[in-house]
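Course exercise 7: structure representation. Students receive a sequence record and must write out the corresponding structure in token form. The form below is the worked example handed out in class, using CAZy families GT39 protein (41 residues). Read each field label carefully; the graders check that inputs and outputs are placed in the correct fields and that the protein name is recorded exactly as given.

STUDENT ID: A-19
EXERCISE PROTEIN: CAZy families GT39 protein
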Amino acid sequence: CASQGIKPLSYWYIEDNVNIYLPLDAEKTGYKPLSFFQKFN
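STUDENT ANSWER:
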């Protein structure tokens, strides 16, 4: 916890997500990792 962090320099990441309307065995999907140059486009 950053109690005195600077807001523009603070990043928040979602680590978990739950959807009560999806079955437990629902197919999971994701994104392929970007190359170094794709990160800047």
